[in-house]
Model the fold of this input.
Amino acid sequence: MTTPHQFDVVIIGAGAAGLFCAGMAGQAGLKVLLIDHSEKVAEKIRISGGGRANFTNKDVSPANFLSENPHFCRSALSRYTPRDFIALMNKHGIAHHEKHKGQLFCDNSAQDLIDMLLKECEAGGVQRWQPCQVQNLREITENPDEPPENSSIFGSRPRINCLNRYEINSNQGVIKTPNIVIATGGLSIPKIGATDFGYRVAKQFNLRMVEPRPALVPLTFDGDAWLPYANLAGLALPVVIETGTKKSKSNEKAAFSEDLLFTHKGLSGPAVLQISSFWRENGTIKLNLTPNTDVLALLQQSKARSHKLVANELANLVPSRLADAWTSTDTTLQRPMSDVPDKALTQLAQRLSNWELTPTGTEGYKKAEVTLGGVDTRDVSSQTMESKQSGLYFIGEVLDVTGWLGGYNFQWAWASAFACAQGLAQGLKPKTLEATTD
Done:
């Protein structure tokens, strides 16, 4: 019989959180194995930020995250900050820049960030198995006189003096470890390997779940009401977007000032990705297509001096294609400005600044940047990321913590991974971790 491999910690998932946690835990003196079912490492980092990885945001706070337990993220975020990660980037000589609203990107390529995380793992002596398929994992005991109360009910706590151990069966052999870290992410972008593995492990050990759904995702529209705008794909403009007045039960209030992009299926762009995390089925969104503009005053001025069609004058305020689509469904607006009743101009101005729409859905996980929901943080320690199941940890996107667009989700990956590595180090070795700052 083949002797099982022994490690202090096994981390499942070689994405942002898993790589960072592995490096930190290894450097703290732990024997670490990092495994992933994919042949490629950190594909989500590689494709993020247009290939340059929006790796953090200078202005991170708990207010930038959604969770059913909103205070959970506070501890980890305060103990490992954007400044700490920037210091690590500087240590490795990775040039970066601020692009928009505190968003930081690599100057060259996201590959620089991946290489940095791999070097951190090498510095910690981390063993990495890729690709490696986990066939099953289970709780066992190394004390045959005191087995767990029921080895098939993994949520049961071990008896006093019974060492809590796990056995992982993989296609590269059997692994025994006292600690498992789940860093497998959510369901977003399945084409690069996303699975529900982390959720299945949580359920196996009787941990609660918050229903997952796509977030930071384009919204779709069907029906006749959307026909005038169906051919505007590629058109972009700055807007203010917010959740509307028609709310579903869980619709949350939020507003963002960002760019809007029309697509073949509906709406996208940073504005829509942001609001999608707050939108719920049957809820509405509101768009101000002319922010910081007194539209009615400008339309009244145009009426007094212009004989051009409304669409031509409206093109001074919004893109011409949108102006044409906007006026195409109202014969009153298909006239010269001087012939349009004041009431119609007032209604036009109000609608431009308060366009209320009801999306019919989203483009789903295949286009979602992250997954909202996940492992319920009420069953997880905010200090160490250890769950109620002793020795089982969850970090990163697999948890019910979801950041805004703009580097916040990467910062949660770093912060939760650091908190976990610190907890592991304090629990198994006298050595502890310290964040490096300038």
About this structure: The first helix runs from residue 16 to 27. Residues 5-212+372-428 form a domain with the FAD/NAD(P)-binding domain fold (CATH 3.50.50.60).
